[in-house]
Design a protein that fits this description.
Layout: H1 7-21, H2 27-37, H3 42-66, H4 71-91, H5 106-114, H6 117-127, H7 132-151, H8 153-191
Helix pairs in contact: 1-6, 1-7, 1-8, 2-8, 3-5, 3-6, 3-7, 4-6, 4-8
């Protein structure tokens, strides 16, 4: 078995996942959940979200094949989702958001907050361009970061403040927008 580790792919995939997961932008939601229920199981939520992402990375393509959709078509569709997520981040608007969960457990934190629809769509879109082992390393890097953010969310909110969080969201929104355009242009050619 040959591994194709590539530092550039790992960094790019990590940045894409970081922007899509948007754990920094989710700190206000995490804080309000923590205030409602008292405690968030950071380790458990991180491990479950990693399992969901890795499982979807491997099984997602088979599910698509089962219903007759190729990865390039899914990547183009994923580029639209990433595009709209970026628009939300840049403009500070909400195009679509689920109702806020009533309890802070695995379900609202691990799924859909960390490993939600945007994340799994992005994973399949990344798979169309990058080697799987590089995406797995990117998932691990992001899950470790998510764990530390969940553990120290109050401290991060206090240090960055509301304006700092908004600036970070907008910067990653622009990065995400550029990635959506690249993903669209590189996969749309293979459909025709």
């Amino acid at each position: 078995m040959e591994f194709n580790f590539n530092f550039r792919e790992i960094v790019t995939a990590s940045m894409v996942l970081f922007a899509v997961i948007d754990i920094i932008g989710s700190i206000p939601i995490i804080i309000s959940l923590r205030n409602k229920v008292g405690h968030i199981q950071s380790g458990k939520a991180s491990v479950v979200s990693a399992c969901i992402m890795v499982a979807f990375l491997f099984v997602g393509e088979e599910i698509l094949n089962l219903i007759g959709i190729d990865v390039n078509s899914f990547a183009v569709a994923g580029s639209f989702i990433i595009f709209f997520l970026a628009i939300e981040m840049i403009l500070g608007i909400t195009l679509y958001r689920d109702d806020q969960p009533e309890s802070a457990s695995i379900v609202p934190i691990a799924f859909p907050l960390i490993a939600g629809a945007g994340t799994v769509t992005t994973l399949l879109s990344l798979r169309a361009e990058y080697y799987v082992e590089n995406i797995i390393v990117a998932i691990i890097i992001n899950v470790i970061f998510v764990y530390f953010v969940l553990k120290s969310s109050r401290r991060i909110e206090h240090i960055l403040g509301k304006n700092g969080l908004n600036v970070i969201r907008k910067i990653f929104g622009v990065i995400l927008l550029a990635i959506a355009v690249k993903l669209f242009t590189s996969n749309i050619n293979q459909l025709f």
